[in-house]
Amino acid sequence: MLLKQTMLTAALALALCGPAVAQSTGPGDPEAVDEDDGRYYDADGLPTFNIAEDGTVDFPTYSGFRRYHAECHVCHGPDGLGSTYAPSLVQSVRQKSYETFVEVVVNGREHVDSGNRNVMPAFGTNPNVMCYLDDIYTYLRARAQGDLPRGRPANTEPKSDTFSDMENACMG
């Protein structure tokens, strides 16, 4: 668990240290190979989702669904599919690295071309986003893979005590 917390801290430090890192391809194979108190990780140690054959969704992915729809969908549309105002995050998660995702959420981004000005505000000081950043990422990753259908997940794993403790500590 300490290694995974160190990786997230490193990703956040990278995001906070200045200009955007070079964009890379998407996060790769989302298969969960490790589990730590209800949070799942892929072979590269990145947060990922776990959906049982009966459709039961891991709690962090469900939490990501809730937080995405509380904070992100007003611009990016329901279920991460984009809107006339902001792009599809489902598509972005397919194409960009986890580190790039974190950097953009923490620091925001502005894209200006000949006829458009798109601005993603920085959420680095918003605990409703930052305390649940990996949850939002796993939700979008599950949507990007096509493993999680649109709408509220019907069945969810129970919330672990560890998750509750971390949430309480982060939210203050």
Automatic annotation (TrEMBL):
<dbReference type="GO" id="GO:0016491">
    <property type="term" value="F:oxidoreductase activity"/>
</dbReference>
<dbReference type="GO" id="GO:0020037">
    <property type="term" value="F:heme binding"/>
</dbReference>
<keyword id="KW-0349">Heme</keyword>
<feature type="region of interest" description="Disordered">
    <location>
        <begin position="147"/>
        <end position="172"/>
    </location>
</feature>
<dbReference type="InterPro" id="IPR036909">
    <property type="entry name" value="Cyt_c-like_dom_sf"/>
</dbReference>
<dbReference type="GO" id="GO:0009055">
    <property type="term" value="F:electron transfer activity"/>
</dbReference>
<keyword id="KW-0732">Signal</keyword>
<keyword id="KW-0560">Oxidoreductase</keyword>
<dbReference type="GO" id="GO:0046872">
    <property type="term" value="F:metal ion binding"/>
</dbReference>
<protein>
    <submittedName>
        <fullName>Cytochrome c oxidase polypeptide II</fullName>
        <ecNumber>1.9.3.1</ecNumber>
    </submittedName>
</protein>
<feature type="domain" description="Cytochrome c">
    <location>
        <begin position="50"/>
        <end position="144"/>
    </location>
</feature>
<dbReference type="InterPro" id="IPR009056">
    <property type="entry name" value="Cyt_c-like_dom"/>
</dbReference>
<dbReference type="Pfam" id="PF13442">
    <property type="entry name" value="Cytochrome_CBB3"/>
</dbReference>
<keyword id="KW-0479">Metal-binding</keyword>
<keyword id="KW-0408">Iron</keyword>
<dbReference type="InterPro" id="IPR022411">
    <property type="entry name" value="C-typ_cyt_methanol_metab-rel"/>
</dbReference>
<feature type="signal peptide">
    <location>
        <begin position="1"/>
        <end position="22"/>
    </location>
</feature>
